[in-house]
Each structure stands twice: as structure tokens, then as C-alpha cells.
Design a protein that fits this description.
The chain is of the alpha/beta class. The chain has helices at 32-41, 60-67, 91-99, 103-107, 118-126, 132-139, 142-146, 158-162, 164-175, 201-213, 250-261, 289-299, 340-345, 362-371, 409-426, and strands spanning 18-23, 45-50, 110-116, 150-154, 179-180, 184-187, 193-197, 225-230, 235-236, 242-243, 265-270, 282-285, 305-308, 315-317, 334-336, 352-358, 376-380, 389-390, 392-395, 402-403, 407-408. The strands form six sheets. Strands 12-11-8-13-16-17-19-20 form an eight-stranded mixed beta sheet, sandwiched between helices. It has a five-stranded parallel beta sheet with strand order 2-1-3-4-5, with helices on both faces. A two-stranded antiparallel ribbon has the order 6-7. Helix 1 packs parallel to helix 2 (60-67), helix 1 (32-41) crosses helix 10 and helix 5 (118-126) packs across helix 9 (164-175). The longest helix has 18 residues, at 409-426.
Length: 433
């Protein structure tokens, strides 16, 4: 292994985390330099692996200077350090030295690919290994993958990201245990606006911190049945137009994945979303609030936990038109949609119920907690829908509100799973341990 092990920031003499950072040929490759800086500032040991196309966008020397290590980029290097290889060495010996680079996969405590192009996602989903990075990714030990320590950060043109093949690949990767962070919505290098922008390096770093520090301590909820709602609902004005909101579904799908990682049996009721839906769980697709209500009431009787995370439309047209409106002006009479949590509170069931309050007011969140008979309510700000992070306050009956720091929604999902396990233990439904 080239380069000395970093010790800066390693408190108490502990060995610093070893991070393998893959950089692929997306236009956002230059942002990975900031990620290396953040890793090194935290005292982490970093080895950068670059693809051929990424080296045309950013010079390897920049990554070497920041990481303190030579960049790895060849599966079978043509030249080697004289300390390791003599001129008289056979071609077989030279090839053997090249293969040793695959040991990087076992060396790493955490593997991150940022940016992850459609190309590398497709290779990994299909099991293709035709360069150093794709080979390393397939050689990552199962224990590293299963513990959530392989993080892929997609970045590409929005049309590429939305392509069915790319979405299928992402879904397959999620099902296989890979952690997907992003992409964000925003202006892209090509001038388009939409999903595809690389997540901010600070957000990526926080996701990496979480993977190293907390995800391995996820509780075991095997045997528990969890019902999660995610996304938004849409209420038709006419056959073309709808009333809805900006929810992307990122928080709800992350929560469903986190419960699945805790070995719970998960049913996900998903309205329209702007993120890939996780695989490996029962999935129920709905559109309107009425449809979501029906699905929740159908499944609540066999659930141990209900997490009502979906952003439900509060109003719907009183009389949706059967044909498209063509008039120059339009007046709509609106009526309230059914309140799903109120309906749940009136039923006989044994599920622990967690609701969300998209309102920073603790007072209003407490009112929701009381009137809808919730076990926990998560208060969060109006700015939460459509972004990568959440700043949540947890409010439970007879307890002081607990404000959490702003964090990636994926990290929050695991915090919520841990909190759910604690609440279940308090009801003596999960053994202590």
C-alpha cells in the first residue's frame, strides 16, 4: 500500500478510518477534491481511484497532493516502484503485482464513489469489471457491503438519471445493499434544471460519518412488521391538472430502507415520488389521499409500527372535471381530504404510530401528538421537502422535545429506527439488549 497511514484526528491512538474514493468521469469530478479535503481534515486515510475519463477532467496530481497517496488507476500497471519490482521480473510477476491492487477493496473501511456516473452504476448492477474501479467495487467484501459502507453518489444529466435503465440499475443496487446518496435537484452543467446534480460534499461527508459510526449499531427488529407511507398525494382538478406538493419521497423511502436493514418486514405505501423506490419489500403504489387512506386502513391491523411520513394533500377539488379545462380563468371549490392519522386513531389496533408535522412549531406538533393519539411526532421545517437534509425535533408524550442536528435524510432514517426500537422496548414488545 503506497503512502503512510494518517494519524491526524485519530483520538486515543485509534487507527483512522481507511476510505477508498472512486472518481468517475462526470463533470462534477472536481468536487471530489473537496471531499478528499474533508476526509483528510477528519484524520481519515484516503486512497483515490480514478477512471480513465475522470483523469481527462481532473489531474491525478491534485488528488495525490490532497490525499498524500499516489492515485490508483490501472488494473495492471505498466511500471512499478523500483522498491517492489526489478527490471528482470517476469511478466507474470508484473501482472501479479497489478492484481494486488484489488487488495484495496479489503483494505477499505468505507468505499465511496463520487461522482458515480450512469456508466459505473450500470457496470456494478450488471457485475461488469473492465477497469480498476469496477473490479474493486465487485471485490468489496460482503461484510462491508452489508453494513452499509459502500456509498454511491450519482451525478449526471437529468434525462440520463430519469432513464428507465438507470432507475432499474439504481433499484437493483439498493436491493443489493448499496447506499445511494442523491442526486440533488438544481441547475446542471449542461444548462438543464432537474435531478442529477452532485450532492454537496459536506452532505456526502456526513453520510460517510454516519456509515462509519452509527449504521453498524442499528437495532435488530426481526419479526416486526412496519408500515411506512412515503411521497406525496395528488388530487385531480381535471384529467390533466392536479393539486399536490413538493415532497420527493426521499425521507419516507430512506425510512423504509432503514427498517428493512434492521430486518423488519416492511410494507411501503408510496404516492408519486422523485427518487428510486427500494426493492426487497412489499410495495403498494397509490396516487390520491383516498387511495392512501384505504391502503393504510387495510394493512394497519397486522402492523407493529406505522410511520406516516407521506406528505398528504390537505385539499382536493369538490368537483373534479371529467374533461380538461380550457377557459381563460378558473375558480375551484376545495374541500378537505380525509385525515389518515385521525382515521387510524379511531381504530382498534396495536401498532406504534409515528407521525410527521411539517411545521417548526412545537406547540402545533404537540397538538397533533395529542389529538391523533400518536406515540411520536417528528416536527420539521417547511424547507424539508425536496432537499437532501432534515432538521427534526422528536416529540413524545410526557417527554421534553429533542432537537436533532441537521443531517442527511438517510442518517435521520436510522436515528428514527433506533428511536422506534426504544419505544417498542418501553412497551415490552422488544427485549432489552
Amino acid at each position: 500500500m503506497a503512502g503512510a497511514r494518517a494519524t491526524r484526528g485519530a483520538a486515543g491512538g485509534k487507527t483512522p478510518p481507511r476510505v477508498l474514493l472512486g472518481v468517475t468521469g462526470g463533470i462534477a469530478a472536481y468536487k471530489a477534491l473537496e471531499l478528499v479535503r474533508l476526509f483528510r481534515k477528519a484524520g481519515w486515510d484516503v486512497q483515490v481511484v480514478m477512471t480513465r475519463h475522470s483523469r481527462k477532467l481532473v489531474g491525478p496530481e491534485s488528488f495525490s497532493a490532497l490525499s498524500g497517496r499516489p492515485v490508483a488507476h490501472e488494473l495492471f500497471p505498466r511500471t512499478h516502484d523500483a522498491r517492489h519490482m526489478t527490471r528482470e521480473a517476469s511478466s507474470m510477476e508484473r501482472e501479479a503485482l497489478g492484481v494486488k491492487h484489488i487488495d484495496l477493496a479489503a483494505w477499505a473501511d468505507l468505499v465511496v464513489v463520487a461522482p458515480a456516473t450512469a456508466n459505473i452504476l450500470g457496470k456494478l448492477a450488471s457485475g461488469i469489471a473492465d477497469d480498476l474501479l469496477s473490479t474493486l467495487l465487485l471485490a468489496v467484501p460482503a461484510a462491508t457491503l452489508d453494513s452499509g459502507k459502500v456509498i454511491l453518489v450519482p451525478a449526471m444529466n437529468t434525462h440520463m438519471w430519469q432513464h428507465p435503465s438507470v432507475q432499474q440499475n439504481v433499484g437493483r443496487l439498493i436491493e443489493n445493499g448499496y447506499t445511494i446518496v442523491g442526486p440533488e435537484h438544481g441547475e446542471l452543467a449542461c444548462g438543464a434544471y432537474g435531478a442529477g446534480r452532485l450532492v454537496d460534499p459536506q452532505t456526502i461527508f456526513r453520510a460517510c460519518e454516519f456509515a462509519l459510526q452509527e449504521k453498524a449499531r442499528i437495532p435488530d427488529l426481526a419479526g416486526k412488521r412496519v408500515l411506512v407511507t412515503a411521497g406525496r398525494t395528488e388530487e385531480p382538478i381535471d384529467p390533466v391538472r392536479i393539486i399536490t406538493n413538493r415532497s420527493s419521497g426521499r425521507t419516507g423511502t430512506a425510512i423504509a430502507q432503514a427498517f428493512a436493514a434492521a430486518r423488519a418486514s416492511v410494507t411501503l405505501i408510496a404516492g408519486p415520488v422523485a427518487v428510486p423506490l427500494p426493492q426487497g419489500m412489499e410495495l403498494i403504489r397509490v396516487s390520491t389521499t383516498e387511495q392512501m387512506l384505504k391502503a393504510v386502513l387495510t394493512h394497519i391491523h397486522r402492523a407493529d409500527v406505522l410511520v406516516m411520513c407521506a406528505a398528504v394533500a390537505d385539499f382536493r377539488p369538490a368537483r373534479p372535471a371529467r374533461a380538461k379545462h380550457h377557459q381563460n380563468s378558473l375558480e375551484l371549490a376545495l374541500k378537505r381530504t380525509p385525515d389518515i392519522l385521525t382515521n387510524v386513531s379511531r381504530m382498534s389496533h396495536h401498532a406504534l404510530v409515528i407521525g410527521f408535522s411539517l411545521d417548526p412549531s412545537v406547540t402545533r406538533a404537540r397538538t397533533k401528538l395529542r389529538t391523533k393519539n400518536l406515540d411520536l411526532v417528528v416536527a420539521n421545517d417547511y424547507s424539508t421537502p425536496g432537499v437532501e437534509t432534515i432538521k427534526a425535533t422528536l416529540i413524545a408524550p410526557k417527554a421534553k422535545p429533542r432537537s436533532l442536528p441537521e443531517m442527511p435524510k438517510e442518517r435521520f432514517a436510522y436515528r428514527l429506527v433506533a428511536e422506534t426500537a426504544r419505544l417498542l422496548r418501553s412497551r415490552k414488545e422488544v427485549p432489552n439488549g
